[in-house]
Design brief:
390 residues, alpha/beta, 13 helices, His_deacetylse_dom, acetoin catabolism, Acetoin utilization protein AcuC
């Protein structure tokens, strides 16, 4: 078992809380960590507390006026009209007390992960509190106030002069990160997500390839609704292997939203735990093959916080520490601790049952369509390869 990984966490991360009935619920962090503890895969020495991001660090990506607006909103000092202009006080991102401090801590957690990996204190770092990929330079969006991944990538560039590959496997397109580096040839973004025809934010089409010097460094794989494991994994594996070989990064940053799962209430995909075993497995392989092991992973979406998120996110950490024994039954102690609080029946095994959902009637059509999407997305890489061999 590897001891070269760190897990970024403190209870203060749970302060990023919009309301009691909002779907974004950071209680999932506690559930995932407790599952790892009960499984015997986490010790206190592996846990590192996040620090608060400074204003200067937030300004690497975010407009100072926006940061100031978030501070005022969290103090109850921002008018509704001004708040709305910054995407604050909406149904998706309601205002809550001390929202700047809670949001800056999430960003600081990702920066903590970056420093541990880039300073050689760890090969891998996992910050499940991060992954807020919809935040824009001057606007909150989609449950995201500050965009920790965008700040972290800019921080990686400024402090460590690194070429960064950002891989986003959330069911929602990683729009905020993509647009932050759309014209930057030293950052490559790969997002695999449900097509925007049916789902927020409606972007992430194959033809979004970057602009200016950054043209050709943005890759999008919008899979069809009801996509299942085999098709999803094939799209992920094929695209990631070809993109990393093309870009040759110094470090990879993976955003690990787990809302492509069949049970997630906000999306229309049909992934199971089979997919969430494969995602970190390939990321781990690639980090060691191309980046001297440098792998920073953050959380993201995931709204079935009882049945899906704890298992799926635990699998990232278990891959990082090379624990291959996560099969069969979940720890009974974990089930007993949380079953009375859970509004649904908790799973009893790491993997999902074969009959989790009824057969998808359009499976062959969906599979073929996704394969064509991957072909279109990777066409520039493959076309260049052909020209090089002529």
């Amino acid at each position: 078992m590897s001891d070269r990984s760190v897990f970024i966490f403190s209870d203060e991360l749970l302060n990023y809380r919009f309301s009691n009935d909002h779907p974004f619920n950071q209680m999932r962090l506690k559930l995932a960590l407790d599952l790892l503890r009960k499984f015997g895969a986490m010790v206190d020495s592996q846990i590192v507390a996040p620090r608060m991001a400074t204003d200067e660090e937030l300004h690497l990506v975010h407009d100072p006026n926006f940061v100031n607006a978030v501070k005022l909103a969290g103090q109850g000092k921002l008018t509704e009209e001004i708040a709305q202009g910054y995407g604050l006080g909406t149904e998706d991102t309601p205002i809550f007390a001390n929202m700047h401090e809670a949001s800056a801590l999430l960003v600081g957690g990702t920066l903590t992960a970056v420093d541990y990996v880039m300073n050689g204190k760890a090969d891998h770092a996992l910050h499940l509190g991060g992954g807020l990929h919809h935040g824009f330079r001057g606007k909150a969006s989609g449950f995201c106030i500050y965009n920790d991944s965008s700040v972290a990538i800019k921080y990686l560039q400024e402090k460590y002069h690194a070429r960064v590959l950002y891989v986003d496997t959330d069911a929602h397109h990683g729009d905020g990160v993509q647009w932050s580096f759309y014209d930057d040839p030293n950052v490559c973004t790969l997002s695999i997500h449900e097509t925007g025809r049916y789902l927020f934010p409606g972007t992430g089409n194959v033809n979004e390839r970057g602009q200016g010097k950054g043209y050709g460094y943005s890759f999008n794989i919008p899979v069809d609704a009801f996509t299942e494991d085999d098709s999803w994994i094939d799209a992920y594996r094929t695209s990631l292997i070809e993109v990393v070989e093309f870009f040759k990064p110094d470090v990879i940053l993976t955003q690990n939203g787990v809302d492509a799962h069949y049970l997630d209430p906000l999306t229309h995909l049909s992934a199971t735990m089979k997919t969430y075993r494969e995602i970190p497995k390939l990321a781990h392989e690639i980090a060691h093959k191309y980046c001297d092991g440098k792998w920073i992973a953050v959380g993201g979406g995931g709204y079935d916080i009882w049945r899906v998120v704890p298992r799926a996110w635990s699998l990232i950490w278990l891959e990082m520490i090379e624990n291959s024994n996560c099969y069969g039954s979940l720890p009974q102690e974990w089930i007993d601790k949380w079953k009375d609080q859970a509004p649904v029946e908790l799973p009893i095994e790491w993997d999902d049952p074969e009959d989790l959902y009824p057969p998808i009637p359009r499976k062959p059509e969906i599979t073929e369509k996704n394969a064509q999407t991957v072909e279109k997305a990777l066409y520039p890489i493959r076309s260049n390869k052909k020209q090089e061999t002529i």
